[in-house]
């Protein structure tokens, strides 16, 4: 009898452990992107360099969930960016600079999270543009990544809501607090957006606003040392769509960024800041993109982006072409070759070409070519 009782207890304990394991998960994941890049004009000279994250930023992270029952669960993500070239942390040397949030997710009501997160323009448009995906990445960004589709910055101190799926329609909203006593609007952010999916069609739209009170930015606010622009106000909005048919995918994305009292363009990838006179500025981006999977392993993708801008009293027009060939060695490892060419017209000598991820050209044109390897774990 005693032996049967002990056996029953052992079975019950094993069942409980199995159930606990199934209901509580923590996953370690990451991506490593390393390559060699040639730049035709980088601060006046050509350059060949070893790169980290030329297409997609190298990162590692932890994501987990706990099942609370009744369709409710706790979720969290901690994600750190780093350079594979020298092992240093990215995103201003933050421990978890890419993402850091915790929240509750309900099958019926949606998800609420708090922490450092992506805004609604990134969430709803990033996957529709070439630079927001693995098929183009950083060097396919719109000039200066003015619309943040390449995730140049995240929103700290943020509260975010993501709806459930209503027959293909999902929407979200985010508010980033300034965390400043007596300065509620000094470095705050808010955004809203939505996506709709039906068959091979996916459409999205989003709006983002960053507010700063005066010329002094509250450094503990929503967007600080990784902000693309130093300005009193930034408004970014846009819409786009992708359509997949067979092995092909085509898309179009429009975004516009409006800036008030723009005093600097901060290029974190190039490690430089361009000082400006403090006037208003505007960037209107029109991107057409396509990709085709010739085989399950080999994909060719490309994009053309036309950017009509108003900057420093002139109206530069940016023309950028990007082409990528990618070959998957396995489900987790691929090799790639990508090139980009940018030409600026009507810059009147004030505005030079500046492909994201490298130092600006000292002329109106710039070309970049890179080969590399990506591994996911």
From TrEMBL:
<keyword id="KW-0626">Porin</keyword>
<feature type="signal peptide">
    <location>
        <begin position="1"/>
        <end position="22"/>
    </location>
</feature>
<keyword id="KW-0472">Membrane</keyword>
<keyword id="KW-0406">Ion transport</keyword>
<dbReference type="InterPro" id="IPR002299">
    <property type="entry name" value="Porin_Neis"/>
</dbReference>
<feature type="domain" description="Porin">
    <location>
        <begin position="8"/>
        <end position="344"/>
    </location>
</feature>
<keyword id="KW-1134">Transmembrane beta strand</keyword>
<keyword id="KW-0732">Signal</keyword>
<keyword id="KW-0998">Cell outer membrane</keyword>
<dbReference type="InterPro" id="IPR033900">
    <property type="entry name" value="Gram_neg_porin_domain"/>
</dbReference>
<dbReference type="GO" id="GO:0046930">
    <property type="term" value="C:pore complex"/>
</dbReference>
<keyword id="KW-0812">Transmembrane</keyword>
<protein>
    <submittedName>
        <fullName>GBP family porin</fullName>
    </submittedName>
</protein>
<dbReference type="GO" id="GO:0015288">
    <property type="term" value="F:porin activity"/>
</dbReference>
<keyword id="KW-0813">Transport</keyword>
<comment type="subunit">
    <text>Homotrimer.</text>
</comment>
<dbReference type="InterPro" id="IPR023614">
    <property type="entry name" value="Porin_dom_sf"/>
</dbReference>
<dbReference type="GO" id="GO:0034220">
    <property type="term" value="P:monoatomic ion transmembrane transport"/>
</dbReference>
<dbReference type="InterPro" id="IPR001702">
    <property type="entry name" value="Porin_Gram-ve"/>
</dbReference>
<dbReference type="Pfam" id="PF13609">
    <property type="entry name" value="Porin_4"/>
</dbReference>
<dbReference type="InterPro" id="IPR050298">
    <property type="entry name" value="Gram-neg_bact_OMP"/>
</dbReference>
<dbReference type="GO" id="GO:0009279">
    <property type="term" value="C:cell outer membrane"/>
</dbReference>
């Amino acid at each position: 009898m005693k032996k049967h009782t002990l056996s029953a207890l052992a079975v019950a304990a094993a069942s409980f452990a199995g159930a606990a394991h199934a209901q509580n998960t923590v996953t370690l994941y990451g991506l490593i992107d390393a390559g060699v890049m040639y730049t035709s004009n980088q601060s006046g000279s050509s350059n060949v360099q070893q790169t980290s994250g030329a297409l997609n930023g190298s990162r590692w992270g932890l994501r987990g969930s706990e099942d609370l029952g009744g369709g409710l669960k706790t979720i969290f993500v901690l994600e750190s960016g780093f350079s594979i070239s020298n092992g240093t942390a990215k995103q201003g040397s933050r421990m978890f600079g890419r993402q850091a949030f915790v929240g509750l997710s309900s099958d019926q009501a949606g998800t609420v999270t708090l922490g450092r997160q992506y805004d609604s323009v990134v969430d709803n448009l990033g996957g529709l543009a070439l630079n927001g995906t693995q098929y183009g990445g950083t060097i396919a960004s719109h000039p200066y990544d003015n619309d943040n589709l390449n995730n140049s910055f995240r929103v700290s101190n943020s509260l975010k809501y993501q709806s459930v799926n209503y027959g293909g329609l999902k929407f979200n909203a985010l508010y980033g607090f300034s965390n400043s006593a007596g300065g509620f609007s000094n470095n705050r952010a808010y955004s809203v957006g939505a996506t709709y999916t039906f068959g091979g069609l996916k459409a999205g739209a989003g709006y983002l606003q960053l507010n700063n009170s005066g010329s002094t930015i509250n450094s503990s606010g929503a967007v600080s040392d990784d902000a693309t622009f130093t300005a009193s106000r930034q408004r970014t909005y846009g819409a786009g769509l992708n359509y997949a048919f067979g092995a092909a995918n085509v898309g179009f994305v429009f975004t516009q960024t409006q800036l008030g009292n723009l005093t600097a363009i901060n290029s974190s990838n190039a490690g430089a800041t361009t000082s400006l006179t403090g006037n208003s500025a505007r960037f209107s981006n029109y991107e057409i993109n396509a990709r085709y999977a010739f085989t399950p392993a080999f994909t060719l993708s490309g994009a053309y982006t036309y950017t009509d801008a108003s900057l420093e009293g002139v109206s530069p027009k940016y023309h950028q072409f990007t082409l990528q060939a990618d070959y998957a060695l396995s489900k987790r490892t691929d090799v790639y070759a990508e090139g980009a060419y940018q030409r600026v017209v009507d810059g009147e000598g004030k505005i030079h070409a500046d492909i994201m991820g490298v130092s600006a050209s000292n002329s109106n044109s710039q070309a970049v070519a890179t080969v590399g390897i990506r591994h996911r774990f």
